[in-house]
Write a structure and sequence with these properties.
This protein is mostly helical and 377 residues long. It is 73% helix and 0% strand. It is built from 16 helices and no strands. α11 runs parallel beside α14 (301-313). 44% of the residues are buried.
Amino acid sequence: MKIGAPGRLLLMTGTAAAGWLVSVTAGLQGVTGSAAYLGIAGTLLVIGLYSSTYGISTGELRAGVRTVVLAVTVGVLAKAALIAGVMYAVYREPRYAVLGVAVAQIDPLAVAAMSAGSRMSARARSLLAAWAAFDDPITVLLTVYGAAWLIGGPIVGGGATSALLGILQNLALAAAGLALWTLLRLLRRRYDGRAVDAGEILGLVVLLAAAAVLSLALGVALLGLFYRPALDRWVPRITQAAFLSACFLVGIPLAAGIEPGAGLLLGLCAFGAQVVAGLVIPARIGLRDRAYLAAGQQNGITAIILALLLEVAFPGTVGVVAPAILVVAVLYTASNALLDSGLRPRPRPAPAIVRPPRRRRPAARSARRSRRPPAKR
């Protein structure tokens, strides 16, 4: 059962409210700095990143690779710089700039939900799906290394403080995954059965666990492109469960308070930055697709989990990011509803049925009939 944007918004808000209620009643505000809390948040982030690239069609990705590369590099960097610049100009605190980077990505789950009933072309759908999938790891890297630069150390356990070392670790994880997947493909040609299926799933669990411990976001996204066991039925369910779990975890630090003004500004900046990026990114799509691309901003599991991770280094982060996510969700829902209503063809009135007038017999003909002699008997 697919949930639309309004239902998703209500579900997200209700789950976060449940976490807030549990935090208030049980006094759990101090657990956000614990190793267990960070470990759960890191695991949920890995699940979200893997699912974001698991469902991408590699054929569609190759068809628009140039536009996708521009979107996930120049587009993501431009959006992050725009949001961070506005937040820093208003508050004059570096931590608000990092928060701007954390919400610069597009949520792949929202993109999938929108594309299901959207009037976008296939090219625009594949572009937005790839954009949403790959800007997640780029945003994670920018946020993690930006925060590490500000506080002088990593914000997650085991994370590399050097960007070059971090990239090498991510590539090493992807290379290990590729070697393992190739070996499993060779075994499948000879021994096709449940043992190979179990080996594929076990290998994936080991790779994702290593990525969670070492905080290898980019490597996880690369794994999703080729390491694909037969989990089409389970990946969406697991991702949805991870999303709701992250929403519940967000509600725990919300008990310490929120900053509605900063959250409103952050949400407006995030949505506005996507409008700018969607209009200027070069792509061979029509005006209608441009409008949907510009209104495609939606934050989800990545922004939520980044807020949880940043909460330890910058207390009060969730109190700003959570309202911002809510603002973006409302703008997303309203703008796409307006686009759908404006682009839906108006029903034309049925043409009136005009019946032709009944033909009357000529008077002369009827007169001739009356002058006919009677028939002989």
